[in-house]
């Protein structure tokens, strides 16, 4: 049967001060009136029923996640004792699924992407699921690039193999790390490259076989966790073993050297909303190019992001700024510098101001 696994373990430090340790990016209502995680689950529910949707999140956010997703079985929210990157996340989820369904097929995607066209999204996901059911292998969905982006990894597209329910299926030639601007421009001009979306389809058993082949230490840890699932020692073993798992991404640790990889280029609207300025991609701008949420007042303001969380943000005569105000903190940054918000979080931690984290 088809399952959906939502990766919701990110810390979202680039969205401070709205994002905190117990309320990371996926629990924020950044692009709609509902938090990103709720919107992500709602997007897949017409394709995969709630009883086969799983969310992997942090121990710190597990209860908030269960409260937000009350339509999911509570034990379908899997709490990682420590963040070990996405390879551990998907391997752990695959092991849990195999304990419930020996033939589990999985769609895997992050919790914090914005995809307005749900019908088109579900059409592509269904096509990908059909491919791995018939062909096996590991499949990733690639986004047709619209600009020379240096913040994303890329996929080099190989030979076209078939058309699945209207979607072209290609062999995946290789993963490409985030390029510099000149290289990104060359990719866009040449064609044949896609943005790496971080969305996948595979059989759980085949994913774990690749983990065993490429990451034996991770496989050993997941096997130990799997042996304890459903027993009295499950929590203890998870807490002891999970923090020792190798830290690597699914892209670098598994997909780059997997024996059989496919890709489906998708053309639905997509944004990973990676920073405050990225809200211009997903929110309607006013006549002066400003976007925002919450209570805000802009007088002679241009091309800025204004966020007021339970407080009013008023700005006068500025442009190209990000201003985010919460009841206990205010961020002001030039739009071009907003990627550096993580430096603020690091500085707060160094000063011991943990109440603001």
**CATH architecture type of the largest domain:** Alpha-Beta Complex
Level of helix content? 25-40%
Q: Say how many strands there are.
A: 13
How many helix segments? Answer: 10
Element pattern in H and E? EHEHEHEHEEEHEHHHHEEEEEH
Residue-averaged pLDDT, rounded?
Answer: 95
- Describe the largest sheet: 5 strands, mixed, barrel
Any idea what the radius of gyration is?
21 Å
Our measurement of the CA-to-CA distance between the termini, rounded to an integer number of angstroms, reads: 40 Å
The CATH topology annotation of the largest domain reads as Spore Coat Polysaccharide Biosynthesis Protein SpsA, Chain A
Form type: globular
